[in-house]
What does this fold into?
Amino acid sequence: MSMLTRIVSIGWRIIDALIALALVVMIVLVFANVVLRYGFSSGILGSVEISRLLFVWVIMLGAATCLRNFEHLALADIAEAVFPKARFWLRRFVNAVILGCCIMLVLGAGPQVVANWDNISPMSGIPVGMFYLAGVIGGVLMAGIALLRLIDPRNAAPDYGPDAENAGENAQ
It folds into this structure.
């Protein structure tokens, strides 16, 4: 395993840990807020805003993780069954579409980060631009994955064996 591969692997493990931590914080915040609200007629200021912010980050980082691990919703099996000889080009087309969508996401969310960074949430004190920053980071991660899969078609399929393109045909 090369040094770059090891660094990327550690980076993805950190992202997975951040997603898990965000989920735990969301659960604790929401549970504590419910108990305080219904049991003691009070609540945690900003817990709803913080939970919503964490939820947005979990969604964007989770989408990148799912794309990386081939766990995203895809209809590839249907398309590849109908057009088995076009499998290579279908995967490249799909990754080109993903790359295009991610570029639009980054180009749309980037200016929103700048425009809303000075807007502060009233209860939590967190800049509203943090919501849009999740779109930029998630979009860049997903665009990087799609670009790598376009450059190196061997990475465009979940099977990384030497005969990855014919693995599905041999299984039938």
